[in-house]
Amino acid sequence: MTSKAVRPNSAAPFSAWERAIAWRYLFAKRSQGGVALISAISFAAIALAVASLIITLSIMNGFRSELSAKILGFNGHAFVVDGQADVGDLGPIITRLRQVPGVTQAIPMIESQVLAQGPVAASGAVVRGIRPQDLRATPILAHNIKDGSIARFGEGDDGGDEVILGSRLAETLGVGVGDSISLISPTGGETVFGDLPPSKSYRVAALFQVGMSEYDQTFLYMPLRQAQLFLGRGQAVDFIEIRLADPDKSPALKPALAAAAGPGAVVSDWTERNKAYFGALQVEHNVMRMIFMFIVALAALNIISGLVMLVKNKGRDIAILRTVGASRGAILRIFFMAGASIGVAGAMAGLMFGVAFCLNIETIQRFIEWITGVQIFNSEVYFLSHVPERIDWGEVAGVMAWALGASFLFTLLPAWRASRLDPVEALRYE
Questions:
Q1: Residue 188's pLDDT is what?
Q2: What 8-state DSSP symbol labels residue 212?
Q3: Which residues of the chain are modeled with pLDDT < 70?
Q4: pLDDT at res. 130
Q5: In 360-392, alpha helices (H)
Q6: Whole-number Cα distances in Å, 293 to 32, 63, 296, 297
Q7: Phi–psi pair at 381, nearest 5 degrees
Q8: Which pLDDT score, from 0 to 100, does residue 159 have?
Q9: Fewer CB within 10 Å, N or C, the chain?
């Protein structure tokens, strides 16, 4: 009778019988419980390492994305300084700047340090003088008014005496909408008693909350004309703030902005002003990624221990397979699949856990804070009011490729040693 069974030495690589044996070896008997335990530890270690790397990179990407959005939304993308121009001369300059392709806003502005005093406390602050129409056209301010209204901001011949504050600054001063605060300018004023810093009271018209504690704690806005009067600027402004449709193009647009501003103007952009800050974020991101990639590699090393024990326990089986015609390549593939399956399963489990954690990170944060009663994310320290996350699928693919590559690489050595086992030596003492 003719047998239809496939002989080991005639089967294609990674054939059904090779996969069946590899799958059987993954589930060791009680006598080989040590192999099963090490395999379980390897699976858990790889899963946790992959998940930790995905979560860490996603949170750091979220931080960078959120901080970039806040910084570039609250501040300009480019800045034009012309010390010889006053407000009366800025009309043509602003028109030319607005005509540069990619420019969405050109805002004349004054900025200065002041001391703000309320009924409860005093605090250093940064005052910005801005035209009412420019304030209303800035989305991060106009769309984040927590209390009050900016509808009447800037009314009156002198711009009015209303200001808008960051919500945290208002809490520090102990004021709300409709209350008065006193501002003291560092610019001295000449009196019969000598140079004294000018002081004036303003009514709080509105409170803004942009979600970045540094800005909510520090800044207040007043009409441009009132800021010129209070700070003694006359008709001058400190700079023209430029906002672009694409902030990343600001370095490339600097020559066009300089040409539009005219001779004597100095143009800078946000990449220059925040170079050290964003550079530090990038360095931290790269270092954390490298550290966790080493952790993933160390987790994958556990596969070697389990596979070495498996090869030792299955020495008799390997010898029998070799005597019935299994090639060295078939033995190598069997043990490679047995070890690599642990890495693949662990990496996939880590991927699912890491992505699920990132997608539900705010819920997890609130649950932990509810259980422990401890605020685990202090916005005064981390500058943001919530834990941000942004999954970069390209980085996730890189993490998976690294985890799988490490698992495959560390599986090859014990699998190769299994393929080199001499059947005669393996069966001599059986």
A1: 53
A2: B
A3: 1-15, 17, 27-35, 83-89, 156-159, 187-197, 322, 376-385, 422-430
A4: 92
A5: 361-372, 379-382
A6: 31, 20, 5, 6
A7: -95, -45
A8: 62
A9: N
Query: CB-based contacts of 178: which residues, under 8 Å, 6+ apart?
Result: 148, 203, 204
- Give the pLDDT confidence of 293-305 residue by residue, as tens digits: 888 888 888 888 7
Task: Please write the tens of the pLDDT for every residue from 57-68.
Answer: 888 888 888 878
Question: Where would I find the H helices in 82-165?
Answer: 87-98, 132-136, 139-142
Which runs of consecutive H residues, i.e. helices, occur in 373-392?
Answer: 379-382
CB 152 within 8 A of CB 164: no
- Measure the CA–CA gap between 310 and 31, rounded to whole angstroms: 11
395-430 tens-digit pLDDT: 899 999 999 998 888 888 888 887 777 666 656 655
Strand (E) or helix (H) holding 111: strand 103-117
Question: Where is 405: in which H helix or E strand?
Answer: helix 393-419
Locus of tokens 């005219």: 262
Structure tokens, 197: 């810093």
Distance, CA of 256 to CA of 403 (rounded, Å): 47
Interior/surface letters 374-384, b for 16+ CB within 10 angstroms, e for the rest: eeeeebeeebb
Length of the chain: 430
For 349, half-sphere exposure in the C-beta direction (CA atoms, 13 angstrom radius) is 15
Residue 353 burial (C-beta neighbours within 10 Å; 0-12, 13-18, 19+): middle
